[in-house]
Write a structure and sequence with these properties.
This protein is α+β, with helices and mostly antiparallel strands. Helices cover about 40% and strands about 10% of the residues. Helix 9 packs antiparallel against helix 10.
Length: about 350
């Protein structure tokens, strides 16, 4: 494949939405406002750099063969905004004395394993792409992001946000932006951007469920549980089960995610509300997965993976496009049975047409 064919959109994706950080940056308390403002400034700069840089996928392994084992390397930024930082852990090293390093290593592995075992995918690009991560990034940096090549984790401010390696679904979410980058390459704006975010939430949740051995009805369907500080009134960044209920806090504000198209948010902020309106396709997946029961990464997850990798999903796809393709994928793989019916009902419940 030539270089032009492998070019992808310059997307800079963070787990904490800009609207949350923007509210924090306006706080009267400098201890809250300053870290949020620095994080916002950093993220805005990174987004500008990504728009000005063509991001290319890496070439497949020279041998033409790929391993069923991950190739992980962890770097330490030393609380500077330096990427990648100092190499501190390689694939076959013994566990580090730094718990953050070990969590990053484990989270990369959990993501690799779900994609391999459930879908036969060899790493992010399906060609054995090495999985690299940088930890201890910046000073009180309140975010984690996929920069097109690696995962980067802040330590949080230890008040509102804790260490960003704590929730494995955050790691899975960000790495799945890489999977999307190498497959459908959904544009990061409006509904296609919300789908981009939603796909990352879906597979981030599935990675957590797979690693914990949880069925669809045992899962919490939360994104970022364990990330919020102990004094925050909330349980996570987002809820797929009940969008709009993840947090309601005097400092963070109220979770703005809608669950249905009736409450779709029209905004020019956050690339057209990509972190907000993702609640709608998130909820559709939750409804379908719980209706089908069992392990959500199997039938429901397989259908989402088929849509993402099937080659028919446009870069500018709208919710209705994804919905129609998911129904078609269910029918193609499972026939006109309960899988198709679960998809039709789920999308109907959130107000998204499938034809």
């Amino acid at each position: 494949m030539d270089a032009n064919a492998r070019r992808v959109n310059p997307v800079f994706c963070t787990i904490v939405p800009p609207h949350v950080l923007d509210k924090l940056a306006r706080s009267d308390d400098p201890a809250i406002a300053d870290p949020a403002a620095r994080t916002l400034e950093h993220d805005a700069l990174q987004r500008t750099r990504r728009r000005l840089t063509t991001v290319r996928g890496l070439a497949p392994s020279v041998s033409g063969t790929v391993s069923d084992k991950p190739n992980r390397t962890i770097y330490d930024a030393g609380h500077r905004e330096t990427i990648p930082g100092t190499k501190v852990h390689a694939e076959n090293d013994q566990p580090a004395t730094d718990a953050t390093v070990n969590r990053a290593h484990a989270g990369l592995g959990a993501t690799f394993e779900l994609y391999l075992k459930a879908y036969g995918r060899h790493s992010i690009d399906d060609s054995g792409l090495p999985l690299n991560a940088t930890v201890h990034y910046g000073e009180n940096y309140d975010n984690a992001f996929w920069d097109g090549e690696r995962m980067v984790f802040g330590d949080g401010d230890n008040d509102l946000f804790l260490d960003f390696t704590l929730p494995v679904d955050v790691i899975g979410h960000e790495l799945t932006h890489g999977v999307t980058q190498y497959t459908a390459n959904l544009e990061y704006f409006s509904q296609s951007g919300a789908l981009n975010e939603s796909v990352s939430d879906v597979f981030g949740s599935l990675i957590k469920q797979y690693s914990l051995g949880q069925s669809a009805d045992q899962a919490d369907w939360l994104i970022g549980a364990g990330l919020l500080g102990p004094n925050v009134s909330g349980v996570a960044l987002r809820s797929m089960k009940e969008p709009g209920t993840a947090y309601d806090d005097d400092v963070l504000g109220k979770d703005p995610q809608p669950a249905t198209m009736e409450d779709y948010v029209k905004t020019g902020r956050d690339n057209g509300g990509v972190h907000i309106n993702s609640g709608i396709p998130n909820h559709a997946f939750y409804l379908a997965a719980t209706a089908l029961g069992g392990n959500a990464w199997e039938r429901a997850g397989q259908i989402w993976y088929d849509v993402l990798t099937g080659g028919e999903l446009s870069k500018t796809a709208q919710f209705a496009d994804f919905a129609a393709l998911s129904v078609a994928a269910a029918r193609a793989r499972y026939g006109e049975g309960e899988e198709q019916e679960a998809l039709l009902k789920a999308w109907s419940q959130v107000g998204v047409p499938t034809n």
